Amino acid sequence: MGADDPRLNSALATDFRISRMIAAWKREDPPANRVKPIPIAVIRRTAYLAQHLPADAELLRATADMIIIAFFFLLRPGEYTDSPSETTPFTLGDVQLAIGNRRLPLGTATDAELGQARTASLTFTTQKNGVENEVIRHFLSGDPYICAVKAITRRVCHLRSHNAPASTPLGRVYTGTASRTRSVTPARITKTLRDVVKHLGSDLGFLPTEVSARSLRAAGAMALLVAKVDTNVIQILGRWRSDEMFRYLHLTAEPIMKHFAAKMLNADYTLAPSQLVPCH
Question: First and final CA of the chain: distance in angstroms?
Fold first, then answer.
């Protein structure tokens, strides 16, 4: 009718309020395709290779550490990578290391003392879907390569050695004497995972292109499900506010489905007769 489009501002661009609302709707919609959860074999291979890298490969070691941390804490890419995101990444100041009930002072303890830590905690401050000041803690895994406590300790020791402030993301890496830094980004995580998947081959049951930095959150949830952890506990650990969690779980995991057919055949039953069933 010749009237101005109410959706547009004076610059003929979509009004800021409308664009923000549409963006929020898109974030609420479930992803079109579920990512594949990364099997432990992929994480183990990544961690093994990282610990046998030369001394100057700090960025690659940091990438492996962040993969381990994301797996155990069921983190979103924006929570464990150092990149622009709507989610704030965990920082040095969000970390607590402890031996029993004794919290280790990150500012004054030696690297050797920090290496004796038995637990590592992350405190939610401004992370998406995290209850403010909620703390999630992991204990030593007992594995020589895959351990959240050891991975977090390595990140703390690295950042401390460069006098990094408490606001420094755990995924930031100091690479030179002039305080040069590099970042563990989602793209770097994705490339690392895909390279390892390609190396391990098709026996994994999926292609390298089917995994990404988002796969680690699904991997942690799947590992807990296969270990028969209650789904309510998984939902709490992953900070899911709804049944969206179930989109991350895949029933194709062999330990889950392996005995279901036999169990179903053994689950014979009868029903209590209704009033319509004639008496004998």
Answer: 79
- Output the pLDDT for position 248: 60
Residue whose C-alpha is closest to residue 69's, from 116, 120, 131, 35: 120
Residue 53 within a domain:
yes
- Domains: count for the chain: 1
The mean pLDDT value for 73-78 works out to 90
Could you list the beta-strand ranges (E) of 127-243.
135-139, 172-174, 181-183
Distance CA 9, CA 270 (A): 68
Q: Are strands 135-139 and 102-103 parallel, antiparallel or unpaired?
A: unpaired
**Is 9 among the domain residues?**
no
For helices 40-50 and 58-73, what crossing angle results, to 10°?
A: 150
267 to 103, 125, 248, 264: CA distances (angstroms): 51, 48, 28, 5
Cα distance between residue 197 and residue 36, in whole Å: 11
Return the pLDDT at 201.
86
In this structure, are residues 144 and 52 in contact, taking their beta carbons and an 8 Å threshold? no
Domain containing 126 equals 30-250
- More reliable by pLDDT, 235 or 7: 235
Pick from 32-36, 57-61, 131-135: least confident: 32-36
Please list, in sequence order, all residues whose beta carbon lies within 8 angstroms of the beta carbon of residue 30, skipping any fewer than 6 positions away.
244, 247
CB 79 within 8 A of CB 125: no
Give burial (CB, 10 Å; 0-12/13-18/19+) of 175.
middle
Report the C-alpha gap between 176 and 94 in whole angstroms: 25
